[in-house]
Each structure stands twice: as C-alpha cells, then as structure tokens.
Design a protein that fits this description.
Length: 340
Amino acid sequence: MADLTIPEGGFWPAPEIPQPNIYPMEWRVETEKLAAIYEKSKRMVWNPADLPWDGLNAEDFTREQRLGIMYWFAVLANFDASGPAVFARATIQAFEKHEEDPVRKCFFSITRDEMNHEECCQRTIAKLWPGGPLNWTPSDDLETAAHNNIGWLYHNGGRYWNGYTTAVGKYSLPVLFTSFMMGEMAASTLFRGMASGTQHPVFSEMFQRIGRDESRHLQICMTILENEWPGLTDDTRTLITRQLRAGFVFLSMILWEPPEGFWELPPYFLPNHRVLMNHARDAGLGVLSYEEQAENWRVAMARIRAIVERWGIAFPAIPELDLEGVPVDFIDPEEIIPVF
Ligand SMILES: [Fe+2]
Ligand SMILES: [Fe+2]
C-alpha cells in the first residue's frame, strides 16, 4: 500500500464555497415529523395510469358533457400544470438555501405528486376530447366558447410565472409557505368535495387519491410553518395578509368563481364558464353547486384565518364570502404564488 502524503505544515483547507450553492451535501434532520411525512409519501405513491381507465368511455357521455368535463380539467390544469415546475423550483431553492434534508425531500415528493395530478388532467382530456385543451378546432358556438375561455385562462396562467420565479428568491419562507399552505388547503377542500360529489368510478378514485396527496401537502406546509412562524416580523405579517387575499383571488377560479381584481377576462367569460361547468356537473363529474362551493371555500378560508390569527397575522377581508378582515386592494400578477 502506498504511503499517505502528509504535507509539511499540515493539510491545506479547501476554499470557501460561494453561496447560494447546493453544496455541502449533508443530510441534516431537524424536524423528525417532516422525515416521517416523506416516508409516508413514498409508501402512498400511486400511478395515474393504473386508474380504471377502461371504465371511462366517450360514448357514455353526450358531446356537451364531454366538452364540460374537458373544460373542467382544462381549468384544473391551469393550476395543476404549474405544480411540478413550481415545486421543482422550490426544491432547488431548498437545496441552495441548505434547508434541512426532510424539507428538500418533502418538496421533491410534492413535485412528484403534482406531476401525477397533471397526468390525470392529461389522460382524462385525451380520452374524452382528443386535442384538448386547445389543439382542436371548434365546430359550433358552444365549442368555440369553451376553446376561447380556455385560451383566456391560459393567458392568465402565463401572467404569474415571472413573478413566481422572482418571488421564490425574494420572499422569506413564511411568506412563501403561507401561500403554499393556502393552495394545499384549497386543493384538499376541492378534491374532498369532488370525491363526495362524483358518481363515476374513475373520477371517484382519482379525486380520492389526489385529495389524500393534497392533505399530505397541507401537513408538510403546516409543519414547516410551525417552525417558521415564531420568528415573524411585522413587515412579513403585512405581506402575508396581502398574500392571503392574492391566494383567494387566484384559487377561486377553480374552487368557486373568479372574483374581480386580477383575472383578465372578456365580459362573456363568466356566463359561458357557468354554462360549461353545468355540462360538467350534468356529466356526473362531481362539480358541486355554486352554493356548496361557496360554503366549502368559506369553511376552508375560515380555517386558514384561525391558523394565521394565532400567529398575529391579520386576515384580509373576503367580502365575496362574507368574511370580515383587513381590506386589501388590487392584486398584481407579481403577487400571485401559483400552487395547488
Ligand atoms: Fe395537486
Ligand atoms: Fe398540492
């Protein structure tokens, strides 16, 4: 065996690594609970390709119903299709900021789950409306209305991405995570409602599984926030209040109906959206009624209010749901943190 080389005067220290940088690669664990959630996420992994797709057939629906279902999944995709990229970016950020190992792993698991949720949109649309959401040619007024509305939705989806990519670096973890927490609260509420409303075996299993994932995402966010909230400053609290309003304005598109003050939509969007949503309802997708949606959303927002008020964060006024609070004016696309 060759002899070790010991330099005269001792070993030379390696140079300092400039930050932010993903190194060093250590596996520091501070929050055991997050490590346990990550283990659970691996055990609960499921494959969207294994849903009972043979039971979902275009012939079982009228053309209007198929269009309605495609439209609903296109609206959902406006949220869920951002999921993988949003959390992939957050995962990289967690590495760069040297967050503890379970934080990095949990973000990765959310990225994995969101890819599955997006795949559900993709597979359903491919079966019921090939070419959807946008790569098809409408042949009558109803189809044109659907195609045009989806185009407007995607226009809005495209408006927040630049804002998000800067927000990830700009906002502190509690600000980012309050928004994430709100998105996960919204998502788990939505899919629980849909799972209870649908009569279709494919959608029933899909919504139950997605709902379970979203509840786990919510648990991850809450666990991280419990670590982060004690160090809040007043400036951060004010920012979080705005973020909560931004989250409401953004997420209402899929949970209920889009409120004023962010969405750029033509005047006919909402009436046509209602017609298309009614076709999706009629198809047995599990879309709750306007009133049921409002009630679920109100309950979810009230839960968020109870959580944030414990930490001295003022809740924004949500007059649309009769929830009182601090008035927050117009929401800029830069303030939207897209998450689901
Ligand atoms: Fe999701
Ligand atoms: Fe999620």
